[in-house]
Every structure is written in C-alpha cells, then in structure tokens.
C-alpha cells in the first residue's frame, strides 16, 4: 500500500519535533526518522534510495510538496546556512550505480538533523562562521551521548545540497582512508575538532593529536587550544605517538574501571596519518571496540584497507569515509544507515575544509576564555577545609591548580620524590612555590612535614613564612629559611639534610625497616611523631625517631654551581646524595631555576642527578627543565605551567593553571594565621638567614648569655653561615698565638674589634681584667670611643694609648708581671704604629716589633691577648715577622682581602674565598677551622661600602 506523501511528511515532522525536543534522544529519533523516511520512500515510489528516480515527485524537488523548495518558508534550506562552496563539490556527481539524485526527503532529514546537531554542535562553517559567531557558541550540557557533527556538505547535481553529518563520541568513531597530508582531509579534521571542543563543556573533552607525517603541523592553526588546555601538544614522533596511545589506553582502562561511577572526561584521539605503523593501527582499532564506557573516541585518517603483511586490523563502531577524486563518500554509521543499499550516503560530500584564520582565532579565544573562566581558581581553592588532617606516611600530596576544570594534585612520593621547576624571571615561580607550600602546610602538621626553604636571589620569596616586626606569625613547619642566601649557607643546609639522612638511616637500621614509610607503618604515630614512648625494638627515645617528611626548596639553585670551585663540588656531591637517598628517607627536593644554564651546569657536572627528578614543572620560558625536544613551555601564559612526570619528554605534558597567591594577600595572611594558631605552644621559630641582614653583637644570644667566670674567655666576632647561625668566636687560652687579628681595609674591622673586646669584657668580673685601647686610625675613632665607654661601663679599668705609649706598654707586657687576671690590648690600626714600633731602642737593642712578637708568643700564658686590626695582610705579616710566624696570631677575621693573597699567606692554594660586603672569613689556625661569617657591626653601619 502506498502511503500518501503528506502522511509521510507528517510523520517525519513529528519525529523531528521529538528529536528537537530532546537532543539526548537525538539518535533514537534519527533512527525513527530514518525508518519513517525509508518507509515513506518505499511506499511512495517503491524504488527506495537505490533508485530515487522512481519515487513520485522526488526527482524533481520543485514539485515536492513544500519540502522540495529550499527557499520555502518553514522548510528546506535556511538562507545562509549552507554556504555556496566553490570547489570539488561543484563537480560532484552521483556515485557509480546511483542513477539519480538523493531524494529530497533524505536531504530534508539530514537538514533537520543538523538542526538538532546545531544545538549539539555549533553549526558554523565557511562564510557563515562570521555570522554565527555573533551568536554565543552553542554548548552541550554533556558529551556523554553520541554527538551528531557535520563534516561537510552532500551535493546532489541539480538538487541542491545538504549537510553531511556523522555520529561521534558515545562509542562512535570515524575513519578516513586518506591521511591528513591531503589538505582537504586536514581541513575537515580541524573543523571537526574545533566544532567539538567549542560545543563540549569545559573539561569534558580533551584532544590528543598524533601527527607524524606532518610533524605536528596539521593542527598548527588550532595551537591556541593547547594553551587552553583542551588539546595536548601534537605527538609528532614515533615515540610521542607511542606515548599518546599509551595515554589513550590508560584513559580507556581507567574509564572502564570507573564506569560504574560514570563521569570523567572524554578523550578524542585524532590520528592524522594512522597508517604509519601497524602497531599503532592495532592500538587504534582496539579503542574502536572499547565501547562508550571507555570514553575514548578515535578519528583516524589514512586508514589502509590492506597492509603489506595482510589485512588492516578490524575496526569496531566506525563511520568510514572514502576519498575518491576529490569527493568524499560517507559510509553508514554504526547501528543505522544513511542509505537503503547499506552502502552509506548515496551522495558525494564536499568536506568542510575552510577555517578562516580570524574566525579560528576568535573561536580559540572564546574557548580559552571559557576554559579560563571555568577553570579559574583562587588561592583558597588549594586550601583544604580542615587543617592538618593528612598523614605523610606514604608521601605528600597537594593541589596545585587545574587542567581545564579538573583539579590537579602533585605528590612527593616514590614515583615523584623530587621536583624540578623552571621559568624565566617573572614567570610566577615564587607564586607557584607559595601555592605548593601553603597547600602542604595546611594539609600536614609539623609532625608530618618539615620545610627547609632556600632562596639565592634577591627578593622576599620566603619571608612570609618567618616572623617579622609587622606580623609575628610564622609557619611552624619551617625549620630554616634562607633569603638571599650565600652559597655557603646553601651548602650548610645541604650538609644538615645529609646529617638527617644519616640519622634516619641509623634509626631505620635499628628498627629493621628499609624506608621511612615502612618504619612509620610499623610504628604508632605517637612514637614516630616524638610524643610517645621509645621505638619498638630500638630502645631509642622518641626524639630519635621523629620523622616528618622533609621538603627542601632551593630557589635559583644554579647559583650553587655558578663558580667551579670546591664549594660547587661539595654542593654537587651533596645534592646527588640527597636526590639518590632522599626517596627512602622521606627527604624531598624541589629545585627551581630561572635559567637553562642553571640546569645545564648541573647536567654538565653530573648526569645522574636529574634522573632522580621525574617531575618537571615548566613555567613560561622554563623549557630548560623539559626534554630538549620539548618546547611546550615557550608559549605559555603567566599563571600556567607544563607539568610532566616523565622527566620532561614531549607528549607527557599537562597544561595546568595555578592561582596567583600574590593577588590575594589577605587570604594568604589569613591562612598563615590559622596555621600559626594551630602550632604547639612554644614551637620554635624558623632559623632565618637573610643574606642582606647585618648582625650586632648586642643582639647575639651567646653574647647575652656570657657571664664572668669562664675558664677560657671567648672573643665573639660574628655569626657563622650554618643552619643554626651559630656565633663565631675564638677561645683565648694560654696557647702561644691566641690573639685575634682582624684584617682588611674595611672599617668593619673596627666593628669586629669592638665586638671582640666587649664580649671578652662580659666574662670578667668588674676590675679583674684591664684593657689597653689604642685608637690609632682616624676612621676608627668613633668605634674606639664606643668601645672604651662600653668597657668602662662594665666596670673595667681602661687605658687609652697612642702609638708611643703603645710601644711603652709592649715593652712592659713583653715581660708580664701579673696583677690582673687578663690584660687585653685592643689596637685599632696596628699597622699605623709600625713606624714607631720598628725603631730600635739604642740601649736595649730591641724594637717595638720585637716586643710585639714577644707578647704574641708569651702573652697568652700570662693572660695577655692582643685584639688588633690591621688594614692589610702584608702589614700584619710584616709586623709578626713573616708568614713563618703566622701561628703567632692564630685567630684571624679576614675582611676584604683578595682570596689569592689570603691563600698564599695561609698556605692554602685552593682556598675558595671571595671577599664580599657584610662577610668575613673566620680562620682559627689552631683548630684548623675556616668558616664564613657575618661579622658583627655597629648599629647603622652601611655594609655595602665595606
Ligand atoms: N597564577 C598567576 N596568575 C596571574 N598572575 C600571576 C600568577 N602567578 C604569578 N603571577 C604574577 O606574575 C608576577 C611575577 O610572579 P612571581 O613573583 O611569582 O615571579 P617569579 O618567577 O618568582 O619572578 P622572579 O624570579 O623575578 O622573582 C607577579 O606579579 C604575580 O602576581
């Protein structure tokens, strides 16, 4: 029985109404509609699709009851929707065997379906794009269902054109027989990807492009999507292709494993030249069988029918497209048919190829903006609702930002024990580190986590973790904070970490554990945390097994290697050891650098260190921490980073956005105060080393603790650059030569002498020590006067000497008679007296220098010590009778003396000393001690001039 055309159309219309009502059910309705069409065609003409010419009215659209006239209101093609595309489609004619054009009903069907698809996928293309971009991008609420997407335009000679659509996602895949070296195919792939990502909700779809044949060039026009975090940088080599397919496989496995829970993003794998390798074909084919739950969709171009060794791997739920002489033939999609003969759409298709650059730019910008909007997170998003609830037994984890809308967490654990961070100046390194550190310090208590924070550059990176005058709060996890650190201080921190490794190794051994996690799993927390009884089998005290994980951050670590000297050698050895052993002992390194050369310096020195740093984080300009072939970080915007946990190899990058901690100072301060309030009462402040800070003896805790009655007085001269910043001092015992010589033209010499004099004075009861003070150089008068005043205020007798009187006193002191416990000769500018001292007494045949040398040797045994400042090493050497007598002044504080000159004087050729402002070298010949000092200076001293 024949069905009247009007009835068929009525059915069709109601089917479409339903389809339009719910895009969720679009495919079901497509099926319904198709059936209706087939039926109507079959009943109307009995000829079906294979021979539409036989269908009444179908061959002549104009006669087809409204449907046939595209311009007719309410039906047909909307003006401007289908572009009048020039190009191959204009020459299209029917597929061989197809006698007549595709029925208009089908054309209408597909047109209507594109109406549905338009809701699903923005329908812009070619010239129409600009017009449509005035509308907001149509978005999908989900991509969980199959999406009907337009790939081109079916053209029927003499009968107009209609959109050619295929189902994609939802378990549907697309395969083309021609690869993307064909510009037509390349254009279609780009257009398809752009339509899909534009429509998909942010974060619901990620695109992986494999493009070996064009070295990643096919998707160059869409590279903005990489930065938007929607598309991974194209895999352009065999190795990268393998990694991309690994990722797709893992994604499918994970999705299948979590299928019951539902959700999760989709991965669109676009293989631009699939036929490059049989292995890749097999893996792609496997994915087409995996079903919708795998949440991977394959679009593969260049799929060969046969391979040299046999058939191409069997494909699953794919729509095939063949390219023949500039025409595309679209096969039947899985589960339904586009034509009655089972051979697909019976009309050739001109693929969508044109994506005008300005339009692409605008779409990409809009997508980026949307992703940015939807993925923007603030500093507080990194902070857990409840503080200090995590255990660090298995490792440390913290949120650092988002990839699209998906939160990204990074870990310090067995897989990624240490991190390497790169980024040019101003790339946000400090902000990123603050994000990480606050994230950690809010998740883990100080029993679970300790921090060592070291910064070598000028700036204030870590200052906020330390108490200041304006804000006394601090982060109780921080044990040591170095700001504008010296290399020496850096090495001191590394030494301390090595000591901690050795301590932990011993505890582990005693407890028969091979690593920290094992020990802590076997030991109740209150014991390992230092709050309970002794360890299980060791009998060791709780302090002994207190083992929070330690994160040591070294910003601008390349400074350690900026010279090729003994210190750099030690730093390399220490870093290597820490990197190698840290994993087992819960000690994790974060090395950050702004220059590639910093990284290369270390590579050059020792290749193996960076093998221990699988996690690479590249901020803008930080490609140096990635593989040499991976320049993904070059075009990054501020606030984004490439995170790569495969040692930086290309293809394993994730673009992550992180919040700007600097932008929300109030929130940051509030978090810090919350952490501070939670600390155990009496928790120690971090030891803060600020490279620029000067030190005064009056503020020194050791100085304040000095009282009379010490057996051997100590002369305090500065603060050592060790982690505790211990006080630098010389013990003045009876050994010949126990005198303090301060050397250098710097006026800081006078300040150091002051510190030495007032500190020894505190160790004698008033009146039991006498001080002979000789201010011999004008530049030191002020300090000398202060010294005299301070000594007198302490109740000690003080005699002020000029050069001739100094000579007299030396004559007396050369044969000491006693009377006082100690006599201190404090000479500001010993060298200024050398003219007077070198004169020989005509009667005694002795010069002042002879007496000086006698005092230097014999004085200490009689309680006489010289505290002297020489304004040059040569002058000191001359006064004491040459380098062979150098033990006669065995305690030196060296200021601005060239390292080489000092090395020669001390007989240490490889001495790594560079004079710099606000620093001195403490040399104790008797104790074989050479350490860098921040010398004590008078308040208000401008040290830069030193
Ligand atoms: N995620 C972000 N979003 C927006 N702006 C950011 C972000 N991170 C950092 N910035 C901004 O970038 C600027 C530089 O950041 P930061 O001080 O962290 O850089 P840096 O790499 O440490 O620089 P330098 O090495 O010169 O100290 C700051 O003004 C900061 O506000």
UniProtKB/TrEMBL annotation:
Pfam families: FtsK_SpoIIIE (PF01580). It comes from the Bacteria. ATP binds at residues 423-430. Keywords: ATP-binding, Nucleotide-binding. Residues 405-628 form the FtsK domain. InterPro entries: FtsK/SpoIIIE/SftA (IPR050206), FtsK_dom (IPR002543), P-loop_NTPase (IPR027417). PANTHER family: DNA TRANSLOCASE FTSK, SPORULATION PROTEIN RELATED. This is FtsK/SpoIIIE domain-containing protein. It comes from Rugosimonospora acidiphila. The keyword Chaperone does not apply. Residues 76-95, 522-542 are annotated as: Disordered.
